[in-house]
Amino acid sequence: MGVRTDDENRAGHDVRLHTSHAMAGDAGCIAEARHLATDFLRQADAVHGVPVSSRAVDLTQLVVSELVTNALKYAPGPVLMDLRISDGTVEVTVWDSDPTVPAAREADPGRIGQHGLEIVMRITEHLSVQRESVGKRVTARLLL
Known about the structure:
By secondary structure, the chain is α+β, with helices and mostly antiparallel strands.
């Protein structure tokens, strides 16, 4: 996996790391996306000296799982995932081919499933959806 560094890690200077991945859009890409995100965060810590808590790794895996699962469930074709570290946060962006903007549903403890977006909204610092000329990008930001 290639991790690009935008800035050097110097005292008082934030390290910005970025990586992108295209996935086929098959069922195996959920596990692949989680694995890629975990590797990215571990490499940021071990190689670039960016402190990443185990909580951040766990929550990032959860967000990646939910966003990629939704992309697979509602949009045909490939899924693109960007991961970016900057200013003490990790940003997860998932692109899919469906332009429909997802909406969280009203809380319903009796509902089985379809809680993913609610979970992502609850555990992230920021969540946004941007329509593209083809499809949409869903971006979630978490503290490291």
